[in-house]
Amino acid sequence: MRAASSVLLLVALAGTACGTTAPSGGTPPETRSSTVTERIPVGSVAPRTPVATPPTPVPPLPSAESPRPDAATLFADPAAVSAEWLRQWCTLDWREPMNANLDRAARYQTPAAAKDDRRAGDNEDTYRSVREQQLSSGCDEVTATASPEAPQSANVAYLVLSARRVNSSAGVAFESEQVRSVRRVLRQTDGRWLVDIRVEAG
Predict the structure, then answer these.
(1) Neighbouring-strand partners of residue 109
(2) Cβ contact 173:58 at 8 Å
(3) pTM summary value
(4) Closest CA to 195 of 62, 77, 67
(5) Which helix (H) or strand (E) holds 171?
């Protein structure tokens, strides 16, 4: 009998050590958080730079198959052509050729303005950085309003252009910023309005 009692005592002690016996009172054992075993070592996680704004969906890049807004009604309105120019200028994708956004935007602006914008465009070094980081940008909330500080005429308009630009890296948005430019818009001899050079505020 003493040997049998010893065996029963050992079994009970072993069960308690393994945590398999229910505590007194019939209460189920406390469940320990699994975060301890699932925690990722700090050294295995790349540091993440904090962003000023929460991630925002990137406006989609217009596809080549999308109908291009070349209707005569677009070029008949200085605000409409300016807004379209800003959309094309603002849309950038690392998979495109260098300064492809400037090439698209050029159809909505004067040759002088296109030349001026290209001087501020990418060069080989900056374009290489764009591709390495897989940078893309897109704009929405585009507005074009007459400048209250500049004179307007039948052939010359001064517009304040603005948009929300969302920048992303490898498809993940990391920054949202406001883009603003004051542009002169000129009516051409064929009646079309085209975006001209930027105007310095003040």
Answers:
(1) 195
(2) yes
(3) 0.66
(4) 77
(5) none
Q: What is the pLDDT of residues 62-116, one digit of tens each?
A: 443 344 556 778 999 999 999 999 999 999 999 999 999 999 999 999 999 999 9
Q: Are 184 and 196 in contact (CB under 8 A)?
A: yes
At position 193, the amino acid (one-letter code) is: W
Neighbours of 22 (CB within 10 A): 11
In tens, the pLDDT along 102-147 reads: 999 999 999 999 999 999 999 999 999 999 999 999 998 999 999 9
At 63, list the tokens.
Answer: 């596809």
* DSSP-based three-state secondary structure for 138: strand
CA–CA gap between residue 182 and residue 9 (Å, rounded): 88
Spatial distance between the Cα atoms of 180 and 76, rounded to a whole number of angstroms: 23
User: Distance (Å, rounded) from C-alpha 16 to C-alpha 3?
Assistant: 20
Strand runs (DSSP E) across the chain, as ranges? 92-93, 135-146, 156-169, 172-187, 193-198
Instruction: Please name which of 166, 172, 88, 97 lies closest in space to residue 131, comparing C-alpha atoms.
Output: 97
